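Notes, Module 5: Reading structure tokens.

Key idea: the token line is not a picture. It is a compressed description, and you learn to read it the same way you learned to read a sequence, by spotting repeated patterns. We will look at two proteins. The first is printed below with its tokens.
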Amino acid sequence: MVWGGSVAVLMVVLVAGCAAQQRQQGTSTAGVTDTTIKVGGVLTKTSASGYSTKDAEIGAKARFERANAEGGVHGRKIEFLGAEDDGQDAAKGDAAAKKLVQKDQVFALVPVHAPNFGGAAFLEQQGVPWFGWATGPQWCGTKTGFGYNGCLAPKQGAGSQTWWGRQMADLLGGAEGKSVYVQTSDSSGSKYGGTTISQSFTAAGFDLAGVNSGLPAAAPPPDWLPYVNKIMTSDGGEPPDIVVSVIAGTKFNVGLYAALKRAGYKGVLTDATSYDAAILKDPASAQALEGVIAAPMFEPFESSAPEIARLRQDVEKVAPGTPLTQHLAIGYWAADIFLDMLNKTGKDLTRAKFLATGNGSYLYENAGFGRIQYPKDHSEPNGCGALVKLDTGAFQVAKSMKCFDNVPLK
């Protein structure tokens, strides 16, 4: 009887221990305890071309640190592990996603900012949420991938953005009689961007002078003249009014713009990536990009909006003196949307409940990035963006953040 009583006592102790462990975990969902939510990201910190999104880690950390200072979300603070580097290699991105989920036991991946991210299929199969910049088709059509700006690679017939063309039309006093030429590289993402951005400008009323996707994506060409000659004669033998560059990398844009200016081009140059304070440190780059109109999908840092003042304060607290970059903003706003979705899910947190919130008529509006709507934006972009001009060596807000209706992609 004594032996049996000891077994009974032991069983009670074991059961109590398991119950305590479950209380400590708070839920069976990986990465979640009563007091913490564990997340980590995947970025292209290094690459052969020099392209890097490493600043997104600082942006996400800044937003998470503010959330933690305010008490967390429903009593849970964010345990941010930082970001893995995929080296712009899809296989490494897949391995990084698996490490974060299987070894590090994260609840979600935040931020994901990697043009060739290879972990999408794994995360979708595992039901693990991921947040970042939805630059490629791997983000689209998922239930787990939440781009802060929606899906930038919509399928034919789905909604496609018009904001860039319409913001440019407003800035230039109308589109009637103005032509646009789109230069992309031969990468699949750049070519796809050429299609959607071309339609954005034609939807706004511009005439399409041409699209060239023959530029090798691996490295800038030794001679820009063949590309420049095509551009300078694309509008019935004359230069177009606007040249849009859909190329990832400052080196490419600096080379193209400098060559165009040497050839006497006097029109408007615009792209999605030249809004970068680091450019101003190099006189040659600053000169090549002088007058260029960048098109970020967030409210510019030079804006007087309260949301941007808060962003600047948050970043200064965690990384004093850090230059504010596009990649930093992307990490910050991806983290911000993740936190909002957590808050709306409630204290009883599981991945299934979190995804049900995100995919169940989710709407979040913020002057920092416009608006996001899910599940709609799993298949189309959020339709929001701003314009920034480099004028006499300093960035200026040309058009503040504004959202426009999408149109079906042809």
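Here is the second protein, with the sequence above and the tokens below, as before.
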Amino acid sequence: MARTEVHSTSSATLSKLAQVSQNVQERWLRRVSAWLLLLFLLQGELGAVWDREWHAFVGRDQFWTPPHTLIYSCVAGAGLLALAVVLIETFRYRGHVPGVDDTSTVPIFRFFHAPLGFSVLGFGALLSLIAAPLDNYWHELYGIDIALWAPFHMMGVTGGLIGMLGMVYVFASEAAIERQSGATPRRFLGLTALELGITMAMGSIMNYVLTGFLQFPVVTVGTIHISTYPLPLIAGCVMFMIAALRTTQRAGIATLLTFVLFLHTLAVELFVPWAIRTAVAQQAIPYRVANLVPEFRLDYAFLPAAFLLSAVIIDGIAYLRVRKTGSPNSSMLQTIIQGIIVTLPIVFFTPLILRDYTPYAPIFLPEKGVPFEPAQMTAIVIISLFIAMAVGALGAWLGEDFGDIWRWNRR
């Protein structure tokens, strides 16, 4: 009898150890894949800005330009990695491997089962890849100087944005699993490695928004042209500053996110002008405008400074709430009011930083040689500020909702 009990206890112990080992393998698979995806994302960022500047300085004589090669190798690599994880996780789900069940995966087409983040990322990558040949055909029809708002540009941009949001889900779900497991991982600046991954992914999305800001359309009202580029900056920055705070529950994260964004813009400005000059020299191709050679621009590199005051305001309010209630969270109404308040520094500082970078830096551009009526200008300024604050409120609302989802979602 004693031998039977010992044997039963030993079997249970071995079974438990096997489950722990399989769960460790599951965590390793997802987390290593997440960091590899982050490397692909950084590659895609550099390629996207390189492509924008390549169009401006060189043109587009073929589809396989150097920046396109960088972009689509990134998209293909991330997509194939996501597909591999989906297939592996489906196999593990059907094998009832610990850690792979309905609480940590989502069904896809009723047959596949995979983490939500990898599923979203895979569909985003697929959308961008489908857009590539269609965009090439569009350029063949209408030439190289196609605006960002061309349909297949937007299709590719949308796919990229979906993929990057999926990447945040990947890191956030692992952070939620780690948090709920009761583990005590090492921290840096108060954040775990996975929370740093979330911050880096959000910084990449914010830089992605900056990539196309100069391409946003100009609205004409009477004799006044209105630059709309501050709107995506406001929406993106407010949303992800709030989302980062709600996800990590750390006062100070909005300021850290701004610093991460600065590292991105600095890396872009160090890489892209050099890459264009090198590629042009190697291929012996001319610039579109003689003697107009890309150079490092300090103003673009320091564009995140326009968001610093907004970040400090968000973090300051969060710190005061932690002191008072123990939580950095505000109510939905308070969050929306924060979004409206932090919009104003972005609207004020961005044109100042970009004044030498682009002629469209001023938000309001009167028609040259045509005087405008002060009353008309006043009305347009007031309406534009209301629109900007509404966009900030929308960004704050989305940031709170997405942040709460990322905080608790384990899938």
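Summary for the second protein:
- Residues 2-57 form the longest helix (56 residues).
- The two ends are 44 Å apart (CA to CA).
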